[in-house]
Design goal:
2 domains; Purple Acid Phosphatase, chain A, domain 2; 10 strands; binds manganese (II) ion
């Protein structure tokens, strides 16, 4: 039995498919844990969401998808639209080149949105986009709303998008603010914790301080960082934990 993890797919379906070739769930008990940030940056956010939903149907109970800060942002821009049209600016800045919107809208609806934007009808473009996402892809949006913040295993492991409040000790489950799970900085790098903490969010190049590094990085204490910055590297490193040996493997380890 093995536990696989990957993170920060960010709309890149081809590197995701390549990474999946390193994952074997055929024994019915191995697990794949995805650490969030499925959308934005790459061209195929909707395809990534639907692929993960499909995997969960294909391998019931074996595929765990957590939420990242980009899921929080996506829900925020969908939910804020009807109440605060002033948010349009933030939406346009956050979804660079509107790639995520484009993946949800398809060609015709996106052409209409672009047309509205060219005529500087920002609010109409925003409403059209969010309406379309909420009605045509209601199942995906509902699925995103239910994504958990962390996942624990029986092997003393915590998987999350960004991190947990380790200073809270045993109380980390209730002591960690939601925004820490999805967005905290790697404060505890190099420090020992009673659990192994496996996180994405911060690129391994940044956290390791090794220029050009895009593999998995272990801090020598309790932390595995697995965001290989796909937008730059073109690939998604897969962490594998082998139950029989109690060891981790993957690119860079
Ligand atoms: Mn993130």
């Amino acid at each position: 039995m093995a536990i696989y993890a990957m993170s920060d797919i960010h709309g890149f379906i081809e590197p995701f498919e390549e990474a999946l070739t390193h994952v074997d769930l055929s024994d019915g008990t191995s697990r794949l844990i995805l650490l969030g940030d499925y959308c934005d940056r790459g061209p195929a956010s909707l395809d990534v969401y639907r692929r993960i939903m499909g995997l969960q149907e294909e391998f019931p109970g074996q595929v765990i998808a957590l939420r990242g800060n980009h899921e929080e942002m996506l829900l925020e821009y969908i939910d804020i639209a009807p109440v605060d049209l002033g948010f349009t600016q933030g939406w346009i800045l956050a979804d660079v080149n509107l790639k995520t919107a484009q993946s949800f809208l398809g060609e015709d609806a996106f052409a209409e949105v672009k047309h509205l934007l060219m005529r500087r009808k920002f609010e109409d473009a925003y409403l059209l986009t969010t309406d379309y996402m909420k009605t045509r892809h209601a199942d995906v949006i509902r699925w995103i709303r239910r994504l958990p913040y962390y996942y624990e295993t029986e092997f003393n492991q915590v998987f999350c998008h960004a991190g947990i409040d380790e200073e809270a000790g045993d109380l980390w489950r209730i002591g960690t603010p939601k925004e820490y799970f999805t967005s905290m900085s790697p404060y505890y790098t190099g420090k020992h914790f009673e659990f192994d903490v496996i996180a994405g969010h911060i690129s391994t190049e940044f956290v390791s301080e090794i220029p050009g590094y895009h593999d998995i990085w272990f801090d020598g204490a309790s932390h595995y960082y697995i965001d290989g910055q796909t937008v730059t590297s073109g690939r998604i490193p897969v962490l594998k934990y082998d139950e029989a040996t109690g060891t981790y493997s993957g690119p860079g380890l």
